[in-house]
Amino acid sequence: NSRGAASLLKDSIPITEFSASGPFEGQDLLRRGFTSVKNELLPSHPLELSEKNFQLNQDKTNFATLRNIQGLHAPLKLQMEFRAVKQVQRLPFLHSSNMALDTLRGNDECIGFEDILNDPSQSEVMGEPHIMMEYKLGLL
Question: Cystine design at 92: which of 7, 59, 85, 132 (Cβ 3.0–4.6 Å)?
Answer without folding.
Answer: 132
